[in-house]
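Ex. 9. Protein: Amidohydrolase YtcJ.
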Amino acid sequence: MSFNRIFTNGKIFTADRENREANAMIICNGKISWIGKEEDMPSVVGEKIDLQGRRVLPAFIDAHLHPLMLAETSKQLACTPPGVTSIEDMVQALKKLREEQSPDSWIEGWGYDEGKLEEGRTPNRHDLDQAAKNVPIVLTRTCTHILSVNSKALEIAGITKHTPDPPGGKIDRDEYGEPTGVLRESAGDLVKNKMPVKSLEEKVGALAEYSDTFLAQGITGITEMMADHRPIDYFEIYKAAVEKGMKQRVALYYNWDEFQQLDLNDPALFDRKQSVYIAGIKLFADGSISGQTAWVHPAFIGDDENAGISTTSREELLEAGEAAKKYGIQLAVHAMGEQAIDQVIDTFYKRADWLEGAPSVRVEHASLPTVRAIQRAAESGIAFVTQPIFLFAEIESYLNNLGEERSRNTYPVKNILEKGIQVAFSSDAPATAWGDPVNPFVGLGAAVNRKAYDGSDIGQEQAISIETAVELYTKAAQEVVRIPFVGRLALGFHADFIVLEKDILQVDKADISSMTVEETYMGGEKVYQKKV
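Predicted structure tokens for Amidohydrolase YtcJ:
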């Protein structure tokens, strides 16, 4: 038996180019059965809901983030302003956290950015030893590519003066060759692999609880960009989280090493109509700009010898690409620096064509694409998935590492779009130095204004319209991620949409980043209501 909900008196931005604006829609059994002008609406019986003239958008799809990590770090020490603005603040906060935890618990924190610390440097083991010497401390830098650990954590991991740098990683050392406690890229795994493993129940509970935060931000579609098979398979974790109440639709991208361990005989694993499915394989071609591990050209300012770290090879990329082709899924490759982006695009130049109607290869972040790389990506149908919040929130590190002119030319979204490349916006949360890292409105505001949080000009010539920015977080994100029948408000699509307190298409551009969601709907059901 069908059930209708009739929404009227709204300002509906559909993100559907064939029917761009509407003010009414009919939802039947969770899907849109009609949308258009109220005077043209057919006569139906059902529950009527007055949108009171408010702006309606399709619900957001975050095309690149780490939901499990985000949920877990929300319970860790936030090493971000305004609470932490110096290493001394960090030490005091860690001492307090230790007093609140059991004596043998690991102490974890996230989000520090040396560019925002008064000392202007990365915290090392000597700093962290002041907070605790007998309990391991692990702090994850905002980019998630660098760890700062204390002496106890180094001891547990067996990292000494004689430990070699692992492939694709670097152990920072002092003038005597002793580890400083700063571990870059794969070197961080030496400590991570020794940390206590949270139970399935703990992980599931964290995700289910965080679902409400996503809904409050208007996010109903998410990606897990670092899915693992061990010690607990992420497919199992996310399926259990959905059963426990997590409402988001989830696309999983498995780390390449972990993907090779999976039992892939069940075709249902790749069924995009399910609430959780395997969408692709993830590889890293380099690290981060803010952590000076992106594979760049020219080198970072102040160190002509440091052009970052290359973390994959053409052979590995091709092998992973063949696996993605075999299973009909995408290959997503993290690449920020010029050399890393070139490596990915040159490897798949005119060979990224195994999926029909969708990008086979995604370049994640695409911070510093050259003119040549943009042209070759356009010729190959390679998509870019980028994060406007990065430059907005991490301006200090970009200026310190790249300089003003080069920073302004990062993330050239307007140029990329003009070349016809598919682009999706996302947050990469929690991998950014912002207290509210998953907030889509911060990213939208950054893309439209091209100003950093401190007012710095971050490339006005690359600013885009708010309508385009919204599409990159909705319709375009769906086209890249491929969660079916979302991202637009159109006939036959799921009725996933948000109602805003103000009209985002009409407000002053400076107010976009501070906007909030009043209501979020999934399948025509209200799943979030802002508290008055």
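Check your answer against this statement. The chain has a mean pLDDT of 96.
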